[in-house]
Amino acid sequence: MKKHFEHSHAIVETEYIGEDTRVWAFAHILPGAVIGSNCNINDHTFIENDVILGDNVTVKSGVYIWDGVRIKDNVFIGPNVTFTNDLRPRSKQYPSSFLNTTLDEWSSIGANATIVAGITIGKYAMVGAGSLVTKDIPNNTLWYGNPARFKGYICNCGDKLSNDLVCPSCKKQYSLEDGNIVENN
């Protein structure tokens, strides 16, 4: 007996789906994909073979996730986010392997953002809607625009940090060490 939900109009070819995951109408998941527990895969999504989704991942409608994409736990992918996996695509010409793109834990990608192949989005990072991401995004940072540019630092709770690196919502304090943001203990 399946321990996940599949809508009657979904095509789920993989056997590797975690408990309590929900796959909605017109989603198509190929046989090699690995999907974690408690994920929510919305309508009109496509997940290719060489894809790994961690636990508690939300994939909103209209998202296509191609070979080489690795999505870790607790990631949010907004509607119509676009992933690429080949920097020099040609019809009927395939690379020996596709570039890996990684979304680290708790990262959030806004609607209609485009993520170019080979990028790593850091832990707790946030990419604004409509952004074009062409380079790695560090942990706890906010990026948006075309191309996406650094706009500030983000708390683990999701709020933008003040100029003195304090969260106005949860009051956590951060500091910069060697150019990287770290939470103060």
Keywords:
six-stranded parallel β-sheet, 185 residues, mainly beta
SSE order: EEEEEEEEEEEEEEEEEEEEEEEE
| Low-pLDDT windows of residues | none
For the biggest β-sheet, the strand order reads 1-4-7-10-13-16-19-21-22
The strand count comes to 24
How many helices? The count is: 0
Dominant shape:
globular
Structural class: mainly beta
Secondary structure: helix percent: under 10%
Classify the beta-strand content into a percent band: 25-35%
Main sheet: strands, sense, barrel? 9 strands, mixed
Termini distance?
A: 45 Å
Describe this structure in words.
The chain has 185 residues and is mostly beta strands. It has strands at 5-6, 11-12, 16-17, 22-23, 28-29, 34-35, 40-41, 46-47, 52-53, 58-59, 64-65, 69-71, 76-77, 82-83, 101-103, 108-109, 114-115, 120-121, 126-127, 132-133, 141-144, 149-153, 174-177, 180-183. The strands form 5 sheets. A 9-stranded mixed sheet has the order 1-4-7-10-13-16-19-21-22, with no helix packed on it. Strand 23 (174-177) and strand 24 (180-183) form a beta hairpin.
Please describe the topology of this protein.
Layout lengths: L4 E2 L4 E2 L3 E2 L4 E2 L4 E2 L4 E2 L4 E2 L4 E2 L4 E2 L4 E2 L4 E2 L3 E3 L4 E2 L4 E2 L17 E3 L4 E2 L4 E2 L4 E2 L4 E2 L4 E2 L7 E4 L4 E5 L20 E4 L2 E4 L2
Parallel strand pairs: 1-4, 2-5, 3-6, 4-7, 5-8, 6-9, 7-10, 8-11, 9-12, 10-13, 12-15, 13-16, 14-17, 15-18, 16-19, 17-20, 19-21
Antiparallel strand pairs: 21-22, 23-24
